[in-house]
Design a protein that fits this description.
The complex is a heterodimer of chains A (425) and B (430). Chain A is α+β, with helices and mostly antiparallel strands. In chain A, 43% of the residues lie in helices and 23% in strands. Chain B is of the alpha+beta class and 430 residues long. In chain B, α3 packs parallel to α8, α9 packs across α12 and α12 runs antiparallel to α14. The longest helix of chain B has 19 residues. Classes of the chains: A alpha+beta (425), B alpha+beta (430). At the A-B interface, α2, β5, α4, α10 and β11 of A face α2, α4, α10 and α12 of B.
Chain lengths: 425, 430
């Protein structure tokens, strides 16, 4: 049922995952670079993806690099930084049109792979470090990116509850860093962090699309000759504390809609025996438009436009989110707590279980229909340091029983309620 | 079914128009797990003034009603349609734009059943006074959510500046006072008028058997009765006059101001091939002037006037059209000036062929990439069809573009009386 012929091998200290498929009209390279989330390296690492996109050995500024990409039928190059549990993951993606759909028959694949390698391994340097002007530009851009979160209230509320809920744990750190660190970082310090990243991070390179295997293998052998020495990997995240007490945090701003976020500890992470049961529990609770939260908070009482929950798979967090009127806070919290309790006492039927499993499986299969979705699913294994392929996960989902779900839900502990509301209230 | 082959893209699209007027398109995508279907009516937020089916006098309906109707369609006597889709392992959704209301699902199993559910629920309205009242609370929260969204406010602020009477200036969801007036009778009036199969398009893309799927659709439709198709009399007039106001500031508590420079289309009635060529030219041109590889982008980025939120977009439908350029900026005045200057500079010198070719090539690549996404194919194809165009003509038309086409559009679209600037900033902070 699951069409996934993925081959993995090692080369130059990198794990390379090949998925040759005719499904897509493009070829995608996606490199994930992972190191433990750490206060010291947080902001400096967050700068790296954008600095690397600002110039390479042969294309000395953004414009030249972008023109080169345009010439390659508008190849896409993006960089990103995210958190997977307590791991800090940088990613670099390039996507090019598959040669067979182009009339010009330009040898795009090798050219693109070579440029991709150049972006990551051969940045533009000045006096053995990054160029000062670029560093200043990217520090400014990052500081604006961080400031922009304040203007997006849903994201802001999510950042704030994460800070409050995980005080003292690495997970409280924001993936994109902190403005206050930026002044302490110069081009030398950033370059050193970059060097550590290219030598010591775990690198997973995914190559997805319709390509000629021989040609690709030759190019890889030719291009990737770095002497990497990846460091031994740590665990995905520290365990949650044993004793949890419920906290309430409220904040006032000039907003029109209240943002209610509620964080539960689930004590289950990817690869745990009850991981699939936890996913089903979340699905029944707030993962889909047919779930308890959607029906009870939105449909029954018209309290919200959105009311949902989602899981962080490596840290073991269940986060509930709803946008409500300020004076509906008590009511919304009461309903959410009631519904969590209903999960624990098993107030759901077999039909709901089967439906939720079908939706979860549907979601996974749909993800495999896009290169990024596939990597997103597959990379869980690399973060958790397990071998747990997608096909097996689907089979495990099918076997989840009501008892498993009730047991999983009984591990939920409400940790923090966060409410952002208007100033006049 | 009629096959339409697009050889270079290795795609075959199948088409049939049913007796009741419904246009059905099926695009098989072997290798995909997912099937994605959209069932779309040519009815959006701008359709607020029309002659109801079976009547002779035009009526005006409350703002936000198309979107309200979209929400209410998911309810039936038996309850919520999300639940039915859920049981069948599908994810369902819907959206309302200025000119369209689309209902959709995606699923990797029970595809036939899901297609039936999609057709059945959209063709079965069920509204009661009570459920209409309840929805007002939910949509009220949706409207409030967008009120707190500075990007949405900046976008609508720009459109409001441009138009004096065209309903495109009204927020798609309406306002809390406007939706409070909506009754179930209004919903039925709009439904009966705009949800006739002859005003709708079904697009199914995924790993489906074309003949079997088509038979299912035919059988489903032949079981239902519809009035004879009649053209819909819409009373919304195209608006191509200069902008209503050239500048406006929206005050909101944001850390970073936002600036959008907009250009209103002066001839918003192009359709078919003419529109296709025009909008592709304009998109290529915008990329040449403001794309990440442009001189202007580099200069603005280096000077700290823009960041990666800077973007541009062109929208065209029958009756209205506009381009919007801008993003977050800590130096809003400088961004505005630089956008205006860049356009002026382009008007003064001929376009370099080499640069035009590069921008065209880039668009071809972007188009191929967009064909990876079933959602994108279905949504875009429908918009194209409603404007008399074919999505699969994009590559040949792009290949045929010349620098002179871009220049024509440059001088036509970017005129100063058609320009407006909307800024979002926190007045307390400045």
């Amino acid at each position: 049922m699951v069409d996934l012929q993925v081959r993995s091998s090692q080369r130059a200290g990198m794990n390379i995952h090949y998925w040759k498929t005719d499904k897509f009209k493009t070829v995608t390279f996606l490199l994930m670079a992972k190191a433990p989330l750490n206060e010291r390296t947080l902001t400096v690492r967050a700068l790296i993806p954008s600095i690397l996109q600002s110039g390479t050995k042969n294309y000395s500024n953004r414009k030249q690099l972008r023109r080169k990409l345009d010439d390659m039928y508008g190849a896409i190059l993006t960089g990103d930084v995210q958190k997977k549990g307590e791991q800090h993951v940088l990613s670099f993606r390039m996507e090019i049109a598959s040669e067979r759909f182009l009339t010009g028959q330009q040898p795009l694949l090798k050219e693109a792979l070579s440029l991709f390698k150049e972006v990551v391994f051969e940045p533009r340097l000045e006096d053995g470090a990054f160029a000062k002007a670029i560093v200043e530009q990217e520090k400014r851009a990052l500081s604006q990116r961080i400031a922009a979160i304040y203007d997006d209230k849903m994201r802001y509320a999510n950042v704030r509850i994460t800070e409050e809920m995980f005080k003292g744990e690495a997970f409280s750190l924001p993936a994109y860093g902190r403005v206050s660190d930026l002044d302490t970082l110069d081009e030398q310090a950033i370059y050193q962090a970059y060097e550590r990243m290219v030598t010591e991070d775990r690198f997973d390179l995914y190559i997805i699309g319709a390509y000629d295997e021989n040609e690709l293998t030759r190019s890889i052998e030719e291009l990737f000759t770095q002497n990497r020495q990846p460091k031994a990997e740590g665990q995905a995240a520290a365990k949650s504390p044993v004793h949890i007490t419920e906290k309430l945090v409220t904040e006032n701003q000039k907003v029109k809609q209240g943002k209610l976020h509620i964080g539960f500890r689930t004590h289950t992470t990817f690869g745990d025996e009850d991981y699939e049961a936890m996913q089903v529990a979340n699905g029944i609770f707030g993962g889909f438009p047919s779930s308890k939260l959607f029906r009870n908070v939105r449909e029954k009482e018209s309290l919200a436009y959105y009311a949902a929950s989602r899981l962080e798979s490596h840290k073991g967090v269940l986060m509930v989110m709803a946008g409500i009127e300020f004076n509906k806070f008590e009511r919304a919290v009461a309903i959410i707590k009631e519904q969590a309790e209903a999960m624990k006492t098993g107030e759901f039927d077999e039909e709901t279980i089967e439906q939720t499993k079908a939706m979860l499986i549907n979601q996974m299969l749909e993800a495999i229909d896009t290169p990024r979705g596939f990597v997103e699913l597959s990379y869980h294994e690399m973060v958790a340091g397990t071998t747990y392929p997608i096909g097996e996960r689907i089979e495990a989902l099918k076997k989840v029983t009501k008892t498993d779900i009730v047991n999983a839900a009984n591990k939920w502990e409400l940790d923090t309620i966060y409410f952002l509301k208007g100033e006049s209230e | 079914m009629k096959p339409l082959k697009f050889k270079q893209l290795e795609e075959t699209l199948y088409y049939e128009q049913l007796d009741n007027g419904l246009d059905v398109y099926i695009l098989p995508k072997p290798g995909f797990h997912k099937t994605f279907a959209t069932f779309t009516t040519k009815y959006g937020s701008i359709d607020n003034h029309f002659v109801p089916l079976g009547q002779t006098e035009p009526v005006k309906v409350p703002d936000g009603i198309a979107h309200f109707l979209e929400h209410k369609m998911f309810e039936s006597e038996e309850g919520d349609v999300f639940h039915t889709f859920g049981k069948q392992g599908a994810q369902a959704n819907a959206f309302t734009s200025f000119t369209r209301t689309a209902y959709l699902f995606s699923s990797t199993s029970n595809v036939n059943q899901n297609v039936e559910t999609l057709l059945d629920f959209v063709q079965h309205p069920y509204f009661t006074d009570e459920t209409v009242e309840k929805e007002k609370g939910i949509i009220g929260q949706e409207i409030t959510m967008y009120d707190d969204d500075p990007d949405w406010r900046a976008y609508f602020g720009t459109i409001e500046n441009m138009y004096s009477s065209h309903p495109v200036k009204i927020d798609i969801a309406g306002t809390i006072p406007s939706i409070s007036k909506i009754t179930k009778e209004d919903l039925y009036t709009c439904y009966e008028t705009f949800y006739h199969p002859s005003n709708m398009l079904l697009f199914i893309v995924g790993s489906v058997d074309v003949n079997e799927m088509m038979q299912l659709v035919r059988a489903n439709q032949s079981k239902k009765e519809f009035a004879d198709p009649k053209p819909i009399e819409r009373h919304v007039k195209p608006e191509g006059t200069p902008v209503d106001r050239a500048e406006h500031v929206v005050a909101m508590p944001v850390h970073t101001p936002k600036v959008f420079v907009g250009f209103k289309e002066s001839n918003p009635t192009r359709q078919g091939e003419e529109l296709l060529k025009y909008e592709l030219s304009l998109n290529v041109l915008l990329d040449l002037m403001f794309g990440p590889s442009s001189e202007a982008y580099e200069a603005m980025y280096e000077a700290g006037i823009i960041n990666e939120t800077f973007a541009f977009d062109y929208t065209a439908e029958y009756g209205f059209g506009f381009s919007i350029i801008g993003g977050d900026s800590t130096k809003p005045e400088e961004l505005k000036e630089k956008i205006i200057e860049t356009i002026a500079a382009f008007k003064q010198r001929p376009l370099a062929k080499e640069e035009a070719d590069r921008a065209i090539k880039k668009k071809i690549g972007a188009f191929l990439r967009s064909l990876n996404s079933p959602e994108n194919i279905a949504n875009e194809f429908t918009r194209y069809a409603f404007n008399g165009m074919n999505l699969f003509d994009v590559v040949p038309v792009l290949e045929s573009l010349e620098a002179s086409d871009l220049e024509t559009v440059l001088h036509h679209h970017f005129k100063s009386e058609y320009r407006t600037v909307a800024t979002v900033k926190d007045e307390d902070m400045s």
